[in-house]
Specification:
With 560 residues, the protein is an alpha/beta fold. It has 2 domains: 376 residues, Metal-dependent hydrolases (TIM Barrel); 112 residues, no CATH class. 31% of the residues lie in helices and 22% in strands. The chain has 17 helices and 22 strands. The strands form 4 sheets. Strands 1, 2, 3, 4, 5, 17, 20, 21 and 22 form a 9-stranded mixed sheet that branches. The longest helix has 17 residues. The protein is globular. The relative contact order is 0.17.
Length: 560
């Protein structure tokens, strides 16, 4: 007798092959039969009218901190995710000396939009090294499978201390960092992650440490990763990091390079496709460069207390230095500051996260009753009515409400046809959920459900079997995760049962459920009927099961 049989489902196996109607049987952690006529089972699920696929593999999350207080990485399992890759962009919490813990948390508050109070109350600091951090995750148990990158910024801080964000490293320091990368790979890291992206700043607007690395440091650390015989190099690309240099890195270390964050921009509409074409050409020359793309509009809620979207603008630095202090309002009121920022908006147009598309910035929530009529309206129209520049109008509204006014901005991926091309490209890696980060202004943890519902069913940008492959089999091969991402006998029973007619992502709702009462936006899942991790059910049609087991595994073994 089997432990579990899911009967009469439309089976999508994760390879891109056409779906077939049949049963799937599970014994223990693994699938033992796929097809018709599975035998009796202790638990049977009637999946008539539903589809069954491998669990979604989310290749770009930032759950490194959250997993120390939330083993299930809420809300990802409810969104069909059974495996999460953490440590992206190199923003990890290990290695970390006790003396650097508060700096690490303050930097995460800035670069990843995390609540400092939540981090201070929630993180369980019973580790220092990367191996100790991985051991802690394994010891305390996980609600989903987790693979972890070795993070560049944390490694750099561990070696250079307070100089990590100020200068290039010496040869001796690079050698120390390389040894830490080797130790992480030996302990089971999936690869090495970093960022050269200009908006990635820590406390006070200082660059995150990885942004200070020169080419010789990048080459040495990726080589240290490759010394293990495996591994994936993940980089969030800044404007000064070229695709030809990343091809050089791939050739140097002989390992794949995963390049984020490839969004479409209305102000530079051909740029992302030109970059992907360069990656395609590199792959044709035998160097594995892969573009990581998002299927979702990049939409952020924000207040002027810490507006992440402006932080790549050089003239914004005085505001970043004043975040959390009494002088921020004075900075915003300064005519010189305003003039310099507006000049920078025009100077860097097409290259920064925000490119003066004021029609895509709306007022969401006001604090004063007389301002309620502004809600839901775009800034360009509101400012034009008063004959003012939208930037000045926004600052003055926020100042009149003690900086509590909530705005929203649609920053990237606003052109449906263009995004459909990115998602449907057979070689792109669809992810970029950023789950676990930027909690105060976004939640894209349901990115996979959005692919299944919006892009496959509604827009028909790709077939449903291909959508499933892009979310499962493709990332499993990319990250070298064995026996996952497919429905076949012998594979682990990571499963998502869903209704193809209704699957998708629902609205985001603000909740106050982080440690210390911190707030976050949390998405809702549509059409999910069940999620199993290693053969054990963790989610049903109502959400996370009341007695959901910690059935996940820390993934430490990968194929080259």
């Amino acid at each position: 007798m089997h432990d579990l049989v899911i009967r009469n489902a439309l089976l999508h196996d994760g390879t891109g092959a056409a779906a077939v109607r049949g049963d799937l049987a599970v014994d223990g952690e693994r699938i033992v039969a796929v097809g018709a006529g599975a035998g009796a089972a202790r638990v049977e699920v009637d999946a008539t009218g539903l589809a069954l696929m491998p669990g979604i593999i989310d290749g770009h999350t930032h759950y490194d901190a959250q997993l120390t207080w939330d083993a299930f990485a809420d809300p990802s399992p409810q969104m069909g995710v059974t495996t999460a890759v953490i440590g992206n962009c190199g923003f990890t919490i290990a290695p970390c000396r006790p003396a650097d813990r508060d700096l690490t948390m303050r930097n995460l508050t800035q670069v990843e939009g995390m609540s400092l109070d939540a981090l201070r109350a929630g993180i369980r600091w019973d580790f220092e090294s990367i191996p100790e951090y991985l051991d802690m995750l394994e010891r305390t148990g996980l609600g989903l499978n987790v693979a972890a990158f070795a993070g560049h910024s944390a490694i750099r801080t561990y070696v250079l201390g307070d100089q990590a964000s100020k200068r290039t490293a010496t040869d001796a320091e690079i050698a120390q960092m390389a040894q830490l990368v080797r130790e992480a790979m030996a302990a089971g890291a999936v690869g090495f992650a970093t960022s050269t992206n200009e908006p990635h700043n820590g406390e006070g607007g200082i660059p995150m440490p990885s942004r200070l690395a020169d080419d010789r440091e990048m080459l040495a650390l990726t080589r240290a990763m490759a010394d293990s015989g495996r591994g994936l190099f993940m980089l969030t690309k800044g404007s000064k990091t070229s695709v030809p240099f990343l091809e050089e890195v791939a050739a140097h270390c002989g390992r794949p390079v995963l390049i984020a964050a490839m969004f479409h921009s209305n102000t530079a509409p051909d740029h992302v496709f030109d970059e992907i074409a360069r990656m395609d050409a590199a792959r044709a020359r035998g160097h594995a460069l892969v573009a990581q793309v998002s299927p979702c509009p990049l939409t952020m809620d924000f207040t002027l207390r810490s507006p992440y979207l402006f932080e790549s603008v050089d003239a914004w630095r005085p505001a970043m230095q004043a975040y959390g202090g009494d002088g921020l309002a004075a900075v915003y009121a300064d005519p010189g500051f305003r003039a310099r920022v507006k000049a920078d908006f025009e100077r860097v147009r097409g290259a920064s996260l925000f490119n003066s598309e004021w029609h895509l910035v709306h007022v969401v929530e006001t604090r004063r009753p007389e301002h309620a009529g502004y809600e839901g309206r775009p800034l360009d129209a509101l400012a034009a009515r008063d004959g003012r520049h939208p930037f000045d109008w926004m600052l003055d509204l926020a100042l009149s409400e003690d900086l509590d006014t909530v705005f929203t901005a649609q920053l990237r991926n606003n052109d449906a046809q263009a995004v459909g091309r990115l998602v449907a490209d057979p070689d792109t890696h669809v992810s970029l959920s950023d789950a676990g980060a930027h909690l105060t202004f976004m939640c894209d943890a349901a990115f996979g459900l959005h692919v299944l519902g919006y892009w496959a069913r509604d827009q028909r940008a790709l077939s449903l079997p291909e959508a499933v492959r892009k979310l499962t089999g493709h990332p499993a091969r990319l990250f070298g995760i064995p026996d996952r991402g497919v429905l076949r006998p012998g594979a682990f029973a990571d499963l998502l049962l869903f209704d193809p007619a209704t699957v998708g992502r629902g609205r985001n709702v603000r909740r106050y459920d982080l440690p210390a009462g911190g707030s976050r936006l949390r998405g809702e899942a549509l059409g999910v009927h069940g999620v199993w991790v290693n053969g054990r059910q963790v989610v049903d049609a109502g959400g996370l099961c009341a007695d959901a087991p910690r059935a996940g595994r820390l993934l430490r073994s990968f194929v080259a």
